[in-house]
């Protein structure tokens, strides 16, 4: 887990799982962070000197923006929406006074972001800090002193953050480079980029329809969103919010406005990803951009900056400066013209829906058009255009009338009310609701596998590995409605790996969502997906994978049908038993030394390789033919961090364990430490003399203990400095 900070092994809300039922801990994670996001945005705006009501408007917009609520679909990314404004608040506060104490607060929040590290969102934090640092320097009377304070706060805060997060960072640095994630092509990391049409989605709600139906029946953005919903389901900020952001031009805070505008532009520039030629150049030449995926995440930076600009605009309306009357009039007139265009377009599409349907069919393509509900799509689009037109009109009228409204109370109530009225109905539907019954549902195929009670560990081949998506048959679900929730049932009922982990099933050559499988496992997965069905089964025989799941019938003499299971579709899932699979642990009296890991892979894939009694090792040592029956093994204990095997060897040989060769594992032979060798390209082996022996594998990662020591030292050191500073 520590190879990927997205698992957030040490993040505070994940610790809820230690003492709360899963469902409560899981829900609290999603409840706490949006609330903290809104509070953080409010206090950041206040720290920037914006008045209370205007700060509340910006905070409300941030909390209910499409960007922030889209992150509720992503458990591992939702902390970023809360931490981003709070980190800015702590950093800017430390620059103003009491820099020592406040630097530790800033470092603590930055350390939390590092513990929940997501590369692109961490960059958003860095860009925001650079913007606030520039604001502090250009607004300071003594710029040399301001720069010195900036350097002190930055160094102390960053050092404390790294120390605090060392328990996560140090193992990640060791393990990340061994994963498939460490080398991803640009075409893969940039798949979910912010399409230029997504900029229009910031103004128009539900621009691409509603995603959560089977086959995306009521949405049309698949052609620009990698065949599914966007990584951020919505970029919607609201017509009224954007009008308020435009009104920041009337604010007297020119330097703050400039910094916020630059941050907005920077977020959009990076979020465009593959649609921005400069981003590909950055990916190829600047290492900072090479470790993250899906550039659309950068729009979180733009969202926060635009919400702060909206706070400035709201402040200008409340203070009713003369410049608001002069410049605000033209901004309001422009908004009225745009609102009129939306209403005219709404009326035109109502009279000529065939034009919109023809355009949508062209955009969607002939293959997918048959799955779409075009009347619903057209209705959604027209309603969205009308909604934006209405709120633009109301906002423009309010701007024109602001200088004539006596007192601030009415205006103070109307500003947040309009923001909430536009954002909440459109964005609170962005996350599909799944009940506890859906979550806890255990399909028949999983129950069947659990009931097999095999004596030793084994792996299951999921249908998506043996038959990848490119060769997967079309599936028609037999469901009472088109809710996407039925797909969750289908994935579980068909035994797909992502939905079976909680049942304790070990899958064979399943590619993890975050590509945190080892490079060797990733190579084997790629090879398997390109092999014929028969050759794939031969490979799985070598990988301790006796159970094969498939959505189609497989004719092979090595397979025995165990059972079939309903999937609420025309395709049942077939469970087969694959004969002659190698045990998870076996004794090899023969060996075959090869010079490189590449040669080991080639030898391992050879159909004639005698895997049951011979092991492939790397280095110098020659070859020896294995003997059948030269030794036996049994697994006495098999846990996440320990494996214990008994071996009875008639002659010297090797114990081969078909678990990944991975840093942190140590082995002992009869209580004495012994070396773990890389075996069969990706697995483990230990040299065994003749006789009866016990071999123990224990997971004891040095990087974890080093990181833990550094983190504890940083905590104690920070506490000592704070207490000493407080006394002085």
3D architecture notes:
There is one protein chain. With 728 residues, the chain is of the alpha+beta class. Helices cover 51% and strands 11% of the residues. It has 27 helices and 16 strands. Helix 4 (78-96) packs parallel to helix 6 (119-139) and helix 5 crosses helix 7 (143-164). The model has no long low-confidence stretch (mean pLDDT 89).
**Biggest sheet character:** 5 strands, antiparallel
Overall spatial form: globular
The average pLDDT is 89
Helical proportion, percent range: 40-55%
How far do the termini sit from each other?
43 Å
Percent of residues in beta strands = 5-15%
How many helical stretches? Answer: 27
- By DSSP, the count of extended strands is 16
Regions with little confidence, pLDDT below 50 for 5+ residues = none
State Rg: 30 Å
Spell out the key features of this protein.
single chain, 728 residues, alpha+beta, four-stranded mixed sheet, 27 helices, globular
Task: Briefly characterize the structure.
The protein is an alpha+beta fold. Strands 9-10-16-12-13 form a five-stranded antiparallel β-sheet, with no helix packed on it.
């Amino acid at each position: 887990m520590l190879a990927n900070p997205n698992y957030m092994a040490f993040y505070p809300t994940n610790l809820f799982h230690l003492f709360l039922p899963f469902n409560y801990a899981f829900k609290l994670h999603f409840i706490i962070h949006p609330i903290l996001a809104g509070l953080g945005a409010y206090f950041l705006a206040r720290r920037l000197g914006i008045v209370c009501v205007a700060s509340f408007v910006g905070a409300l917009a941030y909390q209910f923006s499409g960007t922030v609520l889209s992150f509720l679909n992503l458990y591992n990314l939702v902390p970023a929406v809360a931490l981003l404004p709070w980190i800015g608040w702590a950093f800017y506060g430390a620059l103003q006074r009491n820099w020592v104490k406040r630097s530790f607060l800033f470092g603590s929040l930055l350390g939390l972001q590092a513990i929940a590290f997501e590369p692109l969102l961490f960059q958003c934090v860095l860009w925001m800090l650079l913007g606030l640092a520039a604001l502090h320097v250009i607004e300071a009377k003594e710029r040399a002193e301001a720069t010195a304070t900036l350097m002190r706060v930055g160094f102390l805060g960053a050092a404390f953050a790294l120390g605090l997060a060392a328990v996560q960072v140090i193992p990640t640095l060791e393990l990340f480079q061994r994963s498939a994630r460490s080398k991803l092509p640009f075409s893969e990391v940039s798949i979910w980029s912010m399409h230029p049409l997504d900029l229009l989605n910031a103004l128009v709600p539900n621009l691409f329809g509603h995603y959560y139906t089977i086959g995306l029946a009521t949405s049309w953005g698949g052609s620009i969103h990698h065949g599914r919903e966007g990584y951020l389901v919505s970029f919607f900020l609201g017509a009224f919010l954007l009008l308020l952001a435009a009104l920041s031009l009337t604010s007297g805070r020119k330097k703050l406005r400039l910094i916020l505008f630059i941050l907005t532009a920077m977020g959009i520039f990076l979020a465009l990803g593959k649609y921005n030629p400069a981003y590909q150049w950055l990916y190829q030449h600047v290492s900072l951009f090479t470790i993250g995926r899906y550039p659309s995440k950068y729009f979180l930076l733009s969202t926060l900056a635009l919400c702060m600009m909206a706070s400035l605009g709201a402040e200008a309306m409340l203070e009713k400066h003369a410049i608001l009357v002069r410049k605000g009039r033209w901004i309001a007139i422009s908004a009225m013209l745009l609102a009129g265009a939306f209403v005219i377009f709404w009326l035109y599409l109502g009279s000529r829906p065939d034009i919109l349907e023809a355009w949508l069919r062209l955009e969607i393509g002939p293959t997918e058009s048959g799955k779409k509900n075009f009347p619903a799509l057209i209705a959604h689009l027209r309603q969205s255009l009308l909604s934006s037109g209405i709120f633009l009109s109301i906002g423009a009228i309010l701007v024109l009338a602001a200088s004539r409204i006596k007192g601030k109370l009415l205006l103070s109530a109307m500003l947040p009310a309009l923001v909430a009225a536009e954002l909440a109905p459109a964005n609170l539907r962005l996350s599909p609701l799944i009940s506890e019954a859906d979550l806890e549902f255990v399909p028949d195929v999983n129950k069947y596998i659990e009931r097999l009670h095999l004596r030793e560990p084994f792996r299951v081949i999921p249908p998506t590995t043996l038959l990848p998506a490119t060769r997967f048959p079309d599936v028609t679900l037999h469901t009472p409605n088109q809710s996407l929730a039925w797909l969750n049932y289908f994935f579980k009922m068909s035994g797909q790996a992502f939905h079976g982990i909680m049942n304790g099933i070990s899958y064979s050559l399943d590619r993890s969502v975050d590509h945190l499988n080892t490079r060797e496992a990733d190579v084997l997965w790629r090879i398997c997906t390109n092999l014929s069905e028969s050759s794939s089964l031969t490979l799985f025989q070598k990988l301790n994978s006796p159970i094969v799941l498939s959505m189609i019938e497989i004719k092979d003499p090595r397979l025995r049908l165990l059972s079939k299971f309903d999937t609420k579709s025309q395709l049942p899932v077939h469970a087969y038993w694959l004969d002659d699979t190698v045990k998870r642990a076996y004794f090899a009296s023969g060996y075959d030394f090869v010079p490189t890991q590449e040669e080991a892979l080639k030898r391992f894939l050879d159909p004639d390789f005698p895997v049951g009694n011979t092991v492939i090792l790397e280095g110098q040592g020659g070859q020896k033919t294995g003997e059948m029956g030269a030794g036996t093994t049994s697994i006495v204990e098999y846990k996440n961090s320990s494996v214990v095997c008994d071996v009875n060897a008639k002659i010297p040989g090797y114990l081969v364990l078909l678990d990944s060769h991975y840093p942190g594992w140590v082995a002992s032979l009869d209580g004495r430490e012994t070396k773990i060798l890389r075996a069969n390209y990706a697995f483990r082996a230990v040299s065994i003399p003749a006789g009866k022996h016990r071999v123990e594998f224990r997971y004891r990662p040095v990087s974890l203990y080093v990181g833990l020591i550094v983190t504890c030292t940083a905590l104690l050191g920070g506490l000592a400095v704070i207490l000493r500073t407080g006394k002085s």
